[in-house]
From TrEMBL:
SUPFAM superfamilies in the record: Oxidoreductase molybdopterin-binding domain
Organism: Kozakia baliensis
Pfam family, one: Oxidored_molyb
Lineage: Bacteria, Pseudomonadati, Pseudomonadota, Alphaproteobacteria, Acetobacterales
Keywords: Plasmid
Name by which UniProt lists this protein: Molybdopterin-binding protein
Length: 249
């Protein structure tokens, strides 16, 4: 790509709209993006490509800065947000439920043992509890109490390849998200069975959600159906629509 001086007055109406969108998001001007990417951005596909490359770059920087030993802040019981907000890509009335006794977590990909897991089996593993802040990109945050099995312990049990790059989550409400292995092994990443010291209710992801306080809300999958260990970049429901893949909080 050729380096060109960025001339904002030479923008087409279409690109002017793209620029306004970028500025509104508080992100970056087209000129800034053009400088950072070293490309003349003279059409919308060009802008999209440059943005995707930037996103890739910020994902890598975030991954480098992430430490398995740096913990998300924990709070006191008195600080728990009540009522805790519900959010999904649909309204609360449309929440899907399953029979907890019949539910099994599917296990796929780079693991030694692919047998599905029941809730009773998860209850036999060590549990951890956390009171942490959930941050949603839609502009709200809330403090909640979750407990369950650390994902790292589950990955050991199924003989997962810990050198694989990604852990992918598929949900039975047709949602999905995925995380890097360092986050999967983080001590506060837990396969949640309980919310507020009682069985996880339908609104918050029954029968299982993955609570990841080092990630933004959309990377905390509810209604878990399957887990896959993989080296193939998995993306996710919101990530495929342009949300940052790393999504650190
Ligand atoms: N399966 C599933 N998980 C999901 C979502 C969803 O729509 N479906 N939404 C995500 C988003 S954007 C947020 S903010 C949180 C909301 O979780 P809560 O209802 O427990 O507050 O769930 C995340 N996990
Ligand atoms: Mo969210």
């Amino acid at each position: 790509m050729n380096r060109m001086k960025f001339d904002p007055t030479a923008l087409s109406p279409e690109l002017r709209r793209v620029e306004r969108r970028l500025m509104l998001k508080g992100a970056l001007s087209l000129g800034g993006l053009s400088m950072l990417s070293g490309c003349a951005l003279d059409d919308e596909p060009g802008v999209e490509r440059a943005l995707a490359r930037m996103m890739n770059f910020t994902d890598r920087i975030q991954a480098m800065l992430f430490s398995r030993h740096r913990l998300a802040r924990e709070f006191d019981a008195a600080q728990i947000t009540r009522p805790f907000p519900f959010n999904a890509y649909y309204a609360e009335d449309d929440v899907r439920t399953v029979d907890p006794a019949g539910w099994r977590l599917e296990v796929a990909g780079l693991v030694a043992d692919r047998r599905p897991w029941s809730l009773a089996a998860f209850r036999t593993l060590p549990q951890k509890r956390q009171i942490t802040r959930h941050i949603c990109v839609e502009g709200w945050s809330a403090i909640g109490c979750w407990s369950g099995v650390p994902l790292s312990i589950f990955l050991q049990h199924i003989g997962a390849d810990m050198n694989a790059k990604y852990v992918n989550f598929r949900c039975f409400d047709d949602y999905s998200t995925s995380i890097d292995m360092a986050t999967a092994l983080h001590p506060q990443t837990i396969m949640t069975l309980d919310f507020d010291d009682a069985t996880l209710p339908p609104a918050y992801g029954a029968p299982m959600k993955v609570r990841i306080p080092t990630k933004l809300g959309y990377k905390n999958p509810k209604y878990l159906a399957a887990i896959e260990v993989t080296n193939r970049f998995p993306g996710g429901y919101w990530e495929d629509q342009g949300y940052d893949w790393f999504g650190g909080s």
